[in-house]
């Protein structure tokens, strides 16, 4: 069976959604620094945007078939659907925690919810791989949209880790972790480009 | 979004989506499950494709369909399944669904 191309109607709204959320996060940051918004309110708003990002990405995972492997494989859509729903539910719970819980509790509970969502989706993918004869046989085919959503998901997971670090070790460690992510992404970017080019060559 | 509502408003198309949940299926395989003509079935496939709920892939002479629903569309689909959601023009005067052949 031939591989389907990425649906443009999913890529464009996903890109618009992600850019809007990033813009909103920056706006919350600016309003906090300039004193337009109450610092706690701005912090809640910016953090809730992270949950919203998880919701938006989870929504489009089944449409982009993020977990579709390189070869033909039935059941790919079931894993994608499961991961999509898991991220959407985790994202909504993340937003709810930041809207209604006290900040100190939200700082600890929200990353736990986010990481739990990732772990559940990852476990489902591994269980599927176990039945298919190893995770290597179900490695997704790298395409630009899939790679972008994968990097965004990894960044979100890292952001949740930063939340933990900030609560436990303080600002300084969190700042180094944020810089570390940028350096790591820059280091692996050339390899990702090569993998995409290789995958798109017939 | 209106194309998605239109696609989900028909019970035949919802049944097609339900069948595709088990994995990709050929057009013939899907059509054989319904007592409708081929042109009607093709029109149903076209509506689903236009709404972006399914995608088709050619494999030799066969056309295979697979689901391509976002989580939101999946939720709308579940909602439509549960509450028997239909377009106004699909209902007969008695308020019952009108599954007319050639009216996808």
Automatic annotation (TrEMBL), chain B:
PROSITE patterns for the chain: HTH_ARSR_2
UniProt KW keywords: DNA-binding, Transcription, Transcription regulation
One Pfam family hit: HTH_20
Superkingdom, natural source: Bacteria
Gene3D superfamilies: Winged helix-like DNA-binding domain superfamily/Winged helix DNA-binding domain (1.10.10.10)
Presence of keyword Transcription: yes
Cell division listed as a keyword: no
Domain HTH arsR-type intervals: 1-87
InterPro entries xref list: ArsR-like_HTH, HTH_ArsR_DNA-bd_dom, HTH_MetalResp_TranReg, SdpR-like_repress, WH-like_DNA-bd_sf, WH_DNA-bd_sf
Record-linked SMART domains: HTH_ARSR (SM00418)
PANTHER family: TRANSCRIPTIONAL REGULATOR, ARSR FAMILY, TRANSCRIPTIONAL REPRESSOR SDPR
Record-linked NCBIfam families: HTH_metalloreg (NF033788), repress_SdpR (NF033789)
Protein name in UniProt: Autorepressor SdpR family transcription factor
Species this chain originates from: Henriciella marina
């Amino acid at each position: 069976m031939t591989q389907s191309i990425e649906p443009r109607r999913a890529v464009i709204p996903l890109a618009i959604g992600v850019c809007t959320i990033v813009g909103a996060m920056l706006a919350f940051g600016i309003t906090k620094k300039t004193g337009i918004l109450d610092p706690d309110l701005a912090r809640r708003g910016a953090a809730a945007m992270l949950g919203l990002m998880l919701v938006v990405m989870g929504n489009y995972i089944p449409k982009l078939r993020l977990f579709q492997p390189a070869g033909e494989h039935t059941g790919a859509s079931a894993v994608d659907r499961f991961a999509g729903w898991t991220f959407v539910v985790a994202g909504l719970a993340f937003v709810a925690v930041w809207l209604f819980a006290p900040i100190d509790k939200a700082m600890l509970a929200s990353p736990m919810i986010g990481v739990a969502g990732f772990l559940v989706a990852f476990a489902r993918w591994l269980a599927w791989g176990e039945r298919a004869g190893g995770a290597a046989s179900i490695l997704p085919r790298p395409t630009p949209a899939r790679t972008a959503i994968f990097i965004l998901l990894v960044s979100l997971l890292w952001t949740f880790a930063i939340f933990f670090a900030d609560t436990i070790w303080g600002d300084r460690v969190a700042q180094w972790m944020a810089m570390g992510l940028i350096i790591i992404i820059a280091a692996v970017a050339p390899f990702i480009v090569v993998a995409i080019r290789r995958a798109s060559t017939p | 979004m209106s194309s998605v509502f239109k696609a989900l408003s028909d019970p035949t198309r919802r049944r097609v989506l339900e069948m595709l949940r088990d994995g990709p299926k050929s057009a013939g395989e899907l059509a054989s499950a319904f007592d409708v003509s081929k042109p009607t079935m093709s029109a149903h496939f076209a509506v689903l494709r236009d709404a972006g709920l399914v995608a088709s892939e050619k494999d030799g002479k066969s056309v295979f369909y697979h689901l391509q629903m976002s989580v939101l569309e999946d939720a709308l689909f579940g909602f439509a399944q549960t509450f028997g959601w239909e377009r106004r023009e699909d209902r007969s005067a008695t308020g019952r669904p009108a599954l007319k052949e050639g009216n996808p």
